[in-house]
Amino acid sequence: MSFRRIATEADVGVATVHRHFPELIDLLNEVIPLVLKDLEKMLEDNAPLWDEDPERAWHDIVHAFAGMEAVLLKDSLFSTLTEQRGAVTVRKYLMRNLQPLLQGLLNKAHKHGFVSAEVSPMRFHLGLATVSRPLSDAVLDIDPGLPTWAVENFLAGLRSNA
């Protein structure tokens, strides 16, 4: 997770990012609660669709989650949370707050036959993170639909084991 990339996305200088967040853990402490709120809102906004069209609800929310430009889903977060000083507190906060959100989603998906009851929130999260990793522009130029295809295949695999 690069401070330069964060600065570029925030349209500020690297020094500004470092001044406000001297360590990456400081940044994560601020950002993770906001991202969890975004995910919770996505799940709430999607809730009525489960009654009308559960398959569409499942696919829409998983694709939305996969498309989040959030640290929650990116693999660099996991290396940061295992290697950085002070990461234990952030990791515990994330697990305590993310797992119930994902468990609720998985419970709905299981009820409709989209996923096995044995799929844990962490396995689901890490699996989705794996198939939705950011791809280079060169790869996306060759096949712009690859990210959607990868997530659809992940969902098909979950369903085939339900």
Structural write-up:
This is HTH tetR-type domain-containing protein. This protein is an all-alpha fold and 162 residues long. The protein has one domain (23-160): Orthogonal Bundle (Tetracycline Repressor, domain 2). 75% of the residues lie in helices and 0% in strands. It is globular and about 50 Å long. The mean pLDDT is 85.
General shape: globular
Quick check: average pLDDT? 85
**Major beta sheet summary:** none
Beta strand %: under 5%
Radius of gyration, whole Å: 17 Å
Q: What low-confidence regions span 5 or more consecutive residues with pLDDT below 50?
A: none
The arrangement of helices and strands along the chain is HHHHHHHHHH
Secondary structure tally: strands: 0
Calculate the terminal CA-CA distance, rounded to whole Å.
34 Å
Topology, element by element:
Layout: H1 3-10, H2 14-20, H3 24-46, H4 49-52, H5 54-67, H6 75-83, H7 87-111, H8 121-131, H9 137-142, H10 146-160
Helix pairs in contact: 1-2, 3-5, 3-7, 5-10, 6-7, 7-8
Give the gist of this structure.
The protein is an all-alpha fold and 162 residues long. 75% of the residues lie in helices and 0% in strands.
Keywords:
Tet_transcr_reg_TetR-rel_C_sf, mainly alpha, 75% helix, 162 residues, HTH tetR-type domain-containing protein
